[in-house]
Amino acid sequence: MAGFNKVVNTYDEALAGLTDGMTIIAGGFGLCGIPEGLIAQIKKMGTKQLTIASNNCGVDGFGLGILLEDRQIKKMISSYVGENELFERQLLSGELEVELTPQGTLAEKIRAGGAGIPAFYTATGYGTPVGEGKEVRVFNGRSYILEESITGDFALVKGWKADTYGNVIYRHTAMNFNPMAATAGKITVVEVEEIVQPGELDMDHIHTPGIYVDRVILGSFEKRIERRTVSQ
Amino acid sequence: MAGFNKVVNTYDEALAGLTDGMTIIAGGFGLCGIPEGLIAQIKKMGTKQLTIASNNCGVDGFGLGILLEDRQIKKMISSYVGENELFERQLLSGELEVELTPQGTLAEKIRAGGAGIPAFYTATGYGTPVGEGKEVRVFNGRSYILEESITGDFALVKGWKADTYGNVIYRHTAMNFNPMAATAGKITVVEVEEIVQPGELDMDHIHTPGIYVDRVILGSFEKRIERRTVSQ
Amino acid sequence: MSLSREQIAQRVARELKDGYYVNLGIGIPTLVANYIPPGIEVMLQSENGLLGMGPFPTADKIDADMINAGKQTVTAIKGASIFSSAESFAMIRGGHVHFTVLGAFEVDVEGNIASWMIPGKLVKGMGGAMDLVAGAHNIIVTMTHASKDGESKLLTRCSLPLTGAGCIKKVVTDLAYVEIREGKFWLLERAPGVSVDTIVKLTAGPIVVPEVVPEMCF
Amino acid sequence: MSLSREQIAQRVARELKDGYYVNLGIGIPTLVANYIPPGIEVMLQSENGLLGMGPFPTADKIDADMINAGKQTVTAIKGASIFSSAESFAMIRGGHVHFTVLGAFEVDVEGNIASWMIPGKLVKGMGGAMDLVAGAHNIIVTMTHASKDGESKLLTRCSLPLTGAGCIKKVVTDLAYVEIREGKFWLLERAPGVSVDTIVKLTAGPIVVPEVVPEMCF
After folding, report:
1. A147 touches chain D (CB under 8 A)
2. Which of B16, B176, C75, C129 is the most buried (most CB within 10 A)?
3. Is the interface score ipTM higher than 0.90?
4. Does the model's pTM come out above 0.95?
């Protein structure tokens, strides 16, 4: 009997069911708050033709960037990409497709996907290439464009701590896109730094309630820093 | 110099600027998590012709119900009302107007209002009286209706603790509509049980960031229970 | 013998599966929590913002800040979580709740449900019911099969204003367990001692009666 | 003498008011934080989910979980709050940020801004810029007045793909402080030692020159 115990012990179990051509929603901003071990597992599995909604695509050799090496990604839905040479090369050669999406619109599209809202209006992108081909509508004298929601076959999330029921909390700005991603996967997998027992996390301060989470795995993280900046 | 100190010391200051005919968004579910002192202040001020978006309208003699006594409310936007006789009477006599709105749609309309989303599609209410006159649109073979967002001249919020910068946390199910209400007022006033110094609340677990909050007042609360139910 | 309220709840509870997140409406649906089959765990969602609702508190543990969607004082289990109404209905609307049980005035063969409004009577509101029926994949409606005057509540077309359109597939009444498929009611089970004839007579919409209609056991 | 990057930032900083929540873009806008006028408090929002951004950490306090929208390691002030990207852009899109400073390639007299895409060059993306220009009521654009080849960046109509339409009202360049009103640029201030003629010559869109155009002081 499983009950609500979402903990899996291997990365194979964590991503069981992920197959070629699927859509993945991944949390993280830059290299901060990314599910490192789950990404490594996708590389190991060799799954191809993936569509990945994630704000960025890592760097050469780290984060989602490693999935470019074996051409596992067909399409990125992101607000900012190309921090890596390999990305640029595959984009220019047409091997890789990018749907550039404003950061706030991307966050809201994922939230809407998880919340059963198929589409919403936003002023962001009106009058720009992002708005081209999208319905425009005026509310209170201002023009807005219609944006549709995103859901994924899998959502890959990086949490700080989770209890065995899948309740998750995030740490500092490693939160970023993770809470929305967690709501929008048919299967949501959360990789965390620590697994605790139900009741150990304050119920008033759970960031992602366990109802959204299917699998929890204890990971280990390098937490590479993209722009180390110090004051004297 | 005020800086970010949002604390006001009197209810007069807390609701300064509230005038006849304004729209108020009020947090609370039933009698749980309602801004008791702010409601009492509206009664004292005698402000009339108010439109109030709130899930419920209190009971006879408590909560928003007390604003019915002097006919201060013109219209309620709620999902469930009529727990009070006075409400029923004013409704039947046509003195009071009600826009019944599904609870989840109401929550989302207020969230959207605060988030700069003028409208969204939802399946809730499609094919029912709630959907009448609203645009219907099909996404992925399912029908949805268009719902527009709500904002208020004032938002009245009941928090548990706030710091002087207006960062707020809620306690248990007294959270309910309060976090969304807080985002959707031109002027947002939060009444709390305790005011603390900046830094005392864990920055990773703030429910309502201070950017949404204009005024904070220390209240005292009766916290009347609507349905006292015990197990043996 | 028609089912008691408790027996209706008991029959519904047999549909629960291990690991289900469940939302129970007010009235008979609330009673379902008392009959969770042994060996399975379910977690109760209360749409005012609580996942992991526990039993009512003892008198000394009552907390005004801890209520359910019926505005009753409740407790939370270990591993519960609290969230805003927007988050709560994101769960519901987004289809994350596995199982929803709701009362109704009428259902029909199109899967429509009417449960909130009787024209001419004061309408108190739909609360969260419209969101629940629109969001859930798996809803069971509980109600009496017919009114006291013998008027069927299982209709070809609901006569009252709807709560949701085309969203109901299963109904447990005091007389029967019925599924809605292909524009018809399908009689799956009958209450102990209640004849198929009685059920057919009290079902206004088209009903399909299989060769064998097992009797419920309690 | 045209303004240095630091002087542009300094001039922008004078527009800050006590109690402002502020979002500063990458580049010159980031420098604005160094010139907050004495006696006022502002709070910095970083769109990756931080309100109350502090200075860069000392080497021993670096935390990989604590970065800003430019992906630099940062600290948080006392009274900061952390939230999701959806919440962060709810703040931005909802108009709760008082003041936004952004770089640009071009602006025009309709208040359009182009800042993210040069056709033929690899496009890295708009990040949060489109949300910021659409959401803010009060935006200042910082940029050089003209390219190194002397081509104006203050145009009648932007030539590059837009970041936002009709949303810019104020521009601080290395030569001038300009407001956009009624389909024209209005020259409000000039850089020390820069003549009105120079500015007019380097402004491609229609520009209104008031009788007195004060020189900025530093």
Report:
1. no
2. B176
3. yes
4. yes
